[in-house]
Specification:
The chain is an alpha/beta fold and 259 residues long. It has one domain (2-258): Alpha-Beta Complex (Spore Coat Polysaccharide Biosynthesis Protein SpsA, Chain A), CATH 3.90.550. It has helices at 12-20, 45-58, 73-89, 116-119, 122-127, 185-195, 204-216, 224-228, and strands spanning 2-7, 32-39, 61-67, 105-109, 112-114, 130-131, 136-137, 141-147, 175-183, 220-223, 248-250.
Amino acid sequence: MVIFVSSSPSSFKRRETIRQTWAKNARDKGVLVLFFIGSDLTGTADMDKNIINEYRKYKDIIHDTVVDDFHQQTVKVLRMMKYYLKQFVNNKKSSTSTTTGPPLFIKADEDVQINLDKLLSPKMLKTFGFNKESGTFEGRIIGGTQVYMARPDRNSSSKYYMPHGIYAKNLYPPYVSGAFYTMTSPAVLEIYQRSLNLEYFPFEDIFLTGIVGNYLCRANIVHLYEVHHDIIIHPTNTLLDDKERHLAYRIPLNSSLFM
């Protein structure tokens, strides 16, 4: 599996916390954790130097040219997909120790804690479309917390404002929350290719997993919370402490763990 953690350029402490907690033994479990960072237009030369030094030390950072801004998240995740397809799908030599074919694509925000043991359990692997005999993830499957009956926000002063000119319908198609989701390689490939021919849409999760993934590609969405009760995202100041229950949950960015 490959977990792309969407991280801000200045989040040095958060990345270090992840390395020392849930991702500490990831490579031993056959999971590759990569921090995907965009460019900060307000950043300093010292910040760029620190990112370079961080990369040299850990070799787990992908520093892209996309502007790291809330309304550029769609572009950022598409760049993740492009990197994934190039390194792990088109490159036949690339795989992880848990698969013989392309690994599972996972996108997570930097405030999400992941239980790798739960993620790698036979039950979860089967849910994600893993064929034990072939060692591959099959089908177009998206896993995560599914959102139903969401309405576009027409308030022009809102962070989530959606003008009619971009999306005119009264409801979004069912989609998966952007905090944490999984995709098989066939799903990533088709979603990526179709997205390149569509007009820009600012909200990555609605666009990639809902409009493109669910509506256009007809990918199968697995609602992890409803079906398996394995993903719970809620405010807490503790690290992952219930390994039998949770797959992933969110810790507020203002938690002392990240300060």
